[in-house]
Amino acid sequence: MKPLSGQQIDLLEKVIEKRAPALQPLIARLRMQPYPAVVLSDSEVQSLSQVVIDEFCEEGLNADDEPNEYGVRLDCLAGSLLLREGEVAEVPFSSVGRK
User: Fold this and answer.
1) When you count CB atoms within 10 A of the terminal residue's CB, does the N or C end of the chain come out lower?
2) Which residues of the chain fall short of a pLDDT of 50?
3) For position 2, what pLDDT does the model report?
4) Are 36 and 49 in contact (CB under 8 A)?
């Protein structure tokens, strides 16, 4: 299990501030212990992930539906949030815009 990096937590905080300020207390917990699988419940992880996915869909894609630089960072963040020990993360938006 890998911790979130400081940069990932900073990015998550910016997205949460913008889209779901009520989730800010979860960021504080991650700053103290950057292991989502340890300090967050499954429902808390899902809530944070959904906000990141929404941001990805609205701001993280180029006109050709390929991820831009910001989208790549959001994709990595969502994968890190969703990854649980012993599991392979399935990032729900990894195929957005692809047929």
Assistant:
1) C
2) 86, 88-91, 94-99
3) 82
4) no
Write the secondary structure of the chain as one string of H (helix), E (strand) and C (coil): CCCCCHHHHHHHHHHHHHHCHHHHHHHHHHHHCCCHHHHCCHHHHHHHHHHHHHHHHHHCECCCCCECHHHHHHHHHHHHHHCCCCCCCCCCCCCCCCC
Q: Closest Cα partner for 3 from 77, 64, 70? A: 77
Q: Inter-axis angle of helices 42-59 and 24-32, to 10 degrees?
A: 110
Distance CA 98, CA 12 (A): 25
* CA dist., res. 49 & res. 45, Å (int): 6
Q: Are 44 and 18 contacting, i.e. CB atoms less than 8 angstroms apart?
A: no
- Specify the pTM: 0.83
d(CA 91, CA 21): 23
